[in-house]
Amino acid sequence: MNYSKSRFFLMLLLFSGSAFSQLKPLDATLSNYQYPFEVYFKEFKSQNQSLKMAFMDVKPSNPNGKTIMLLHGKNFNGAYWEKTAKDLTNKGFRVIIPDQIGFGKSSKPQSYQFSFAQLAHNTKAILEDLKINKIIVLGHSMGGMLASRFTLMYPETVEKLILENPIGLEDYKVLAKYQTIDEAYQSELKNTAESYKNYQLKFYYDNKWKTEYQPWLDLIAGWTLHKDYPQVAWNASLTSDMIFNQPVLYEFKNIKTPTLLIIGTRDRTAIAKDRAPKEIQPKMGLYQELGKKTQQHIEGSKLIELNNVGHLPHIEVYDKFWNALYNFIK
């Protein structure tokens, strides 16, 4: 996978003097980007290769004995949990924030069999190293799919489960046409800061941009300016395939852990919507319906709907998100 130098320099010219001119190129493991808390690495062998998994372990000054793990979405990494982690530690919670393999500061392997079960296994290994036996798990977007799989695999470890606008509440592979990994990779290579922003405006923020959204756009947009971007794009195509082909919704009925769903009802995120038949597309990603259906499938779960809120409640309406979260875990 050779990166086109001409494309690289063209993008730099396009962004100079534009709204994206403050962007800086970011390498594959974000080594030139500082996270809000100290970053640790777990080095391990997986699938016949050496990998490094980044995580933050944020400890409170006055511990309440509880630990919560925050799992990021596909277009994000652990850094966007900064405010949530600070408020949680102020309330006495220890906070574990991993970057999954293929994301953030963690390794971007060329060849890896991505699965939610494998990612859950990797994550559990970090908790074992830290000697954490009980944990509250919060997952956003793709992190919600991972949090669900983690809970199903390790129910004895998870005290409470919180799903914040998780994807995977419908089975995308029965609604949309399959895209090969090679096709996905070619699509990923076309991403720019502008295309990422347009996507987020449409699905996350209802075409209303605020300055506080910019840092989380810059983190993925900066990748597109670096020579490492093909490596990042390849991992993104592998994880897209994982999301498309590994639904968790059929197993929601098996989750017995106390569960809270925090759902922004304006969200319309749906993987592969553009590959679905035209008549199906408007029916995909309807979170005001999907939240209610999911609550019915997870026995005893609680649903808090945030009206007119998109895919990122903990960024868009932080206070409402925090109140829902803290009332459930305190």
Give an overview of the whole structure.
- The chain is an alpha/beta fold and 330 residues long.
- The protein has a single domain (35-185, 249-329), classed as Alpha/Beta hydrolase fold, catalytic domain (Rossmann fold).
- Helix content is 36%, strand content 16%.
- The protein has helices spanning 5-15, 82-90, 116-129, 142-153, 181-189, 193-203, 214-221, 229-245, 287-297, 313-316, 318-329, and strands spanning 39-46, 49-58, 67-71, 94-98, 135-140, 158-164, 259-264, 302-306.
- An eight-stranded mixed beta sheet has the order 1-2-4-3-5-6-7-8, with helices on both faces.
- A hairpin with a 2-residue loop joins strand 1 and strand 2 (49-58).
- Helix 5 crosses helix 8 (229-245).
- The longest helix has 17 residues, at 229-245.
- The N and C termini lie far apart (49 Å).
